[in-house]
Structures are given as C-alpha cells and as structure tokens.
Amino acid sequence: MARFSFFALLALAAFGAAAPVARRASDDDSCSSSSSTKSSKGSSASSSAAAQSTAQSAASTGSFTLLDYADFQISDGVAGDAEAEANAVFVDPFANVDLATIDDQTVDDIQTMREAAEDAETDQFNPEIESASGDDADALQVGKIKNKVLKLTGETMVLKIKIAQAEAAGDDTSDLESKLAEEQKKLDTNIATDQKSAGATSQSVV
C-alpha cells in the first residue's frame, strides 16, 4: 500500500511539472499569432498607403499622353464640332483634377502638342491652301480653322494650369490672366467660325 502511494505521488509530481510547460507553449503560440497578425496588418496598411499614393499621383497628372500630331489632329471629317474634339485632346483628360497639381512634364507635353498644331498651320495648311483651288481649298480652309481651335485650346489649357499653380504658390497672376483672355478671345472666334461651317467637309494635312 505504501509502495502504491509512493508511485501515485510521483505521477502527480510529474503532471504538475508538465502543466506549466504546456501553458508556456500555449502562451508562446498566442504571442506568435499576435505578432503575425500585427505584421499582416502592417503589411496591409503599407500596401494601402502605396495604392493611395499611386492613385493621388495619377489624379494629379490626369490621363494625358504625349502624341504625334497625326495621332491627335482633328481636321478630318466635317466642321461644327471642333470645340468638343479639341477638348477631348487637351481638356477632358484633366476633368476633376486640381490644375495646380499638374506636373511640369505634363505641361511641357501639352505645349509640345500645341506647337505641333501651330507648325501644321504655318508649314502645311497655309502653303497647301495657297496652292489648292475649288473644293479642295475650301476643305483645307475648314481643316485649318479646326486646327486653330485645337492649337488655341492647348494654349489656353497651359495658361489655366499656370494660373492655378501661381495662385497656389501665392504669386501674381495678372499677366497670365491677361494672356488667357487674349487667347480665349481668339479661340472663341475660331469656334464660332467652325460652327458656322457645320457639316462642311474638312481636310487635314496628314
């Protein structure tokens, strides 16, 4: 009987010694799980911040893409919708975008495309109109007006961006606003001319 009691005591002692180990193992597992959860949350937050930064960057530049003149010219087709067609090139890509946040490279790209439209007018439309006659000359003249709308829309867009940036920086905008008013007047005149010729055949030079 004494021998049985002795073995029973040994068994109880062994069980008591093992229990804390089990508890410690359980505690370690819990800490590991908590650490893993925190790490996962941190990674998720980092990814979310990166995505938000990318979205903000895209929003600040709009969806404008530098194109060759042949890929954005609007002089084919007919007269009447030059304003909307030019806006699709230079204005619509910046819908709902704070113009003050447009980066310098995008402004340069708009300016490059505007200059391409101006070069098309002076180097191609003018000499081709001069050498053409009849319906061909008329169609080229209509195309030239549409190209003027395109060129001036690009110019006014650049000025609007510069004004927004100057205002954000607290700089004087009077000179820019005077220039914008001047270019806008030219644009309005050519839009009106295009609309008066609505439906007339328009010819490009590319």
TrEMBL record:
The keyword Signal applies. Residues 190-206 have a biased composition (Polar residues). Keywords: Signal. It comes from the Eukaryota. The keyword S-adenosyl-L-methionine does not apply. Residues 23-52, 186-206 are annotated as: Disordered. Residues 1-18 form the signal peptide. Residues 31-52 have a biased composition (Low complexity). This is Small secreted protein. It comes from Schizophyllum amplum.
